[in-house]
């Protein structure tokens, strides 16, 4: 309570120190703050009405951090009644070219993710405003005189991130907004932008849209896939690794939704992903290596006939990467791809069988029964193929814990 009182101090330096300290406390205390949410919100929104422009940014940060910390606990009418009206009033005051809108866009992103479907009542005006900001900035980039202001990439980045937050939170609840807007074309333009930060946020939004609204992306699917693949095949990969990571993830999300429609670019993407897996130590980026392994698996799942003839060139490095990934639905997709390729070309994985067994043993538990059965069939297929002690020879190369884990597949 003492810290909250200091937030409302008349001295600007005390305000700044108290609000920053409270944001740190929020990160540490997380959901423990839930029982005190009402009084915290009252103090923060009182500060919001009182602070001058410079310190207002710190309040936005404290509100956003609070939303991240307490999550869905924030989604109660009494709390929203305190929180949202002042923020919306400020939102309406600021123009599309006012830099003071940046921290507000970031704050709304955290609130949207915390509220989930509770954000739906605020979604339409926020969605439309983000679209308008992106359009006005693209005009300013092309013709600042007509736009009346200079281009600033941060407006686009913050708007794309907020749109991602809304799409993630509301899922199918905003399909009409997506279908009736020109979001698809704007996102494609942003994916082609010469500024890496803009591309990074655009590909994150593309991946979110692919999961939920792939049908709306279809008319420009070849262009999305082409520009995404280009992010993986660049001599400057290390400098734009976050862009590559999001582009890679987006390709994988598109693959599982559009299936065979991805086949024209499957070989191109494979040829970009394999070097990433083979040089994973040099890249030293766990997230990109994991996403590359998952996307390669997703491509293999939907077009095994295209990738399987080449599998002996990448099985070892791919299986090493797969064995580092925690159990989740994306890992399931990747292993569906592995099983599909092995069915098409069992001899292609033979030289990497030990690595494949280690990858299978990396599962704590395959909860999907169908996939569990597919993995069993793959192992039993090799056991039958490798006669005259050859199977036992392969098994003897495995560490005891790996062999023990394979027992659950009855081999």
Automatic annotation (TrEMBL):
UniProt-listed Gene3D superfamilies: Leucine-rich Repeat Variant
All copies of domain Importin subunit beta-1/Transportin-1-like TPR repeats, residue ranges: 10-214
This protein's GO CC annotations: cytoplasm
Keywords per UniProt: Cytoplasm, Protein transport, Repeat, Transport
Residue ranges that the Swiss-Prot or TrEMBL entry lists as coiled coil: none
InterPro entries, A to Z: ARM-like, ARM-type_fold, IMB1_TNPO1-like_TPR, Importin_beta
GO biological process, alphabetically ordered: protein import into nucleus
Compartments, as annotated in UniProt: Cytoplasm
Transmembrane intervals: none
Name of the protein: TRANSPORTIN 1 ISOFORM 1
Native source organism of the sequence: Salix koriyanagi
Phylogenetic lineage: Eukaryota, Viridiplantae, Streptophyta, Embryophyta, Tracheophyta
């Amino acid at each position: 309570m003492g810290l909250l009182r200091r937030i409302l101090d008349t001295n600007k330096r005390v305000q700044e120190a108290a609000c920053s300290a409270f944001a740190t406390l929020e990160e540490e205390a997380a959901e423990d703050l839930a029982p005190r949410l009402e009084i915290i919100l009252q103090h923060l929104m009182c500060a919001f009405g009182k602070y001058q422009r410079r310190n207002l940014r710190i309040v936005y940060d404290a509100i956003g951090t609070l939303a991240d910390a307490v999550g869905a606990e924030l989604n109660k009418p009494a709390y929203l009644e305190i929180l949202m009206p002042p923020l919306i009033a400020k939102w309406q005051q600021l123009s599309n070219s006012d830099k003071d809108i940046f921290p507000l866009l970031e704050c709304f992103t955290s609130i949207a993710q915390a509220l989930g479907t509770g954000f739906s009542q605020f979604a339409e005006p926020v969605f439309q405003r983000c679209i308008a900001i992106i359009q006005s900035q693209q005009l300013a980039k092309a013709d600042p005189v007509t736009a009346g202001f200079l281009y600033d990439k941060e407006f686009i980045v913050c708007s794309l991130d907020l749109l991602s937050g809304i799409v993630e939170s509301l899922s199918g609840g905003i399909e009409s907004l997506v279908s009736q807007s020109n979001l698809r074309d704007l996102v494609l333009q942003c994916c082609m932008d010469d500024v890496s930060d803009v591309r990074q946020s655009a590909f994150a939004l593309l991946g979110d849209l692919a999961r939920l609204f792939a049908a709306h992306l279809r008319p420009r699917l070849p262009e999305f896939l082409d520009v995404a693949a280009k992010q993986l095949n660049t001599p400057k990969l290390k400098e734009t690794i976050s862009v590559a990571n999001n582009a890679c993830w987006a390709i994988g999300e598109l693959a599982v939704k559009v299936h065979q429609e991805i086949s024209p670019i499957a070989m191109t993407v494979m040829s970009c992903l394999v070097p990433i897996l083979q040089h994973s130590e040099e890249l030293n980026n766990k997230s990109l290596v994991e996403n590359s392994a998952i996307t390669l698996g997703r491509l293999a799942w939907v077009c095994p006939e295209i990738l399987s003839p080449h599998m002996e060139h990448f099985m070892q490095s791919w299986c090493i990467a797969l064995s580092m990934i925690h159990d989740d639905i994306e890992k399931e997709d990747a292993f569906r791809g592995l099983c599909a390729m092995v069915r098409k070309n069992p001899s292609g994985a033979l030289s990497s069988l030990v690595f494949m067994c280690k990858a299978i043993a990396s599962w704590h538990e395959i909860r999907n029964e169908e996939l569990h059965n597919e993995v069993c069939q793959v192992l039993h297929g090799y056991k039958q193929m490798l006669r005259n002690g050859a199977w036992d020879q392969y098994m003897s190369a495995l560490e005891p814990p790996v062999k023990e884990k394979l027992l659950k597949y009855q081999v």
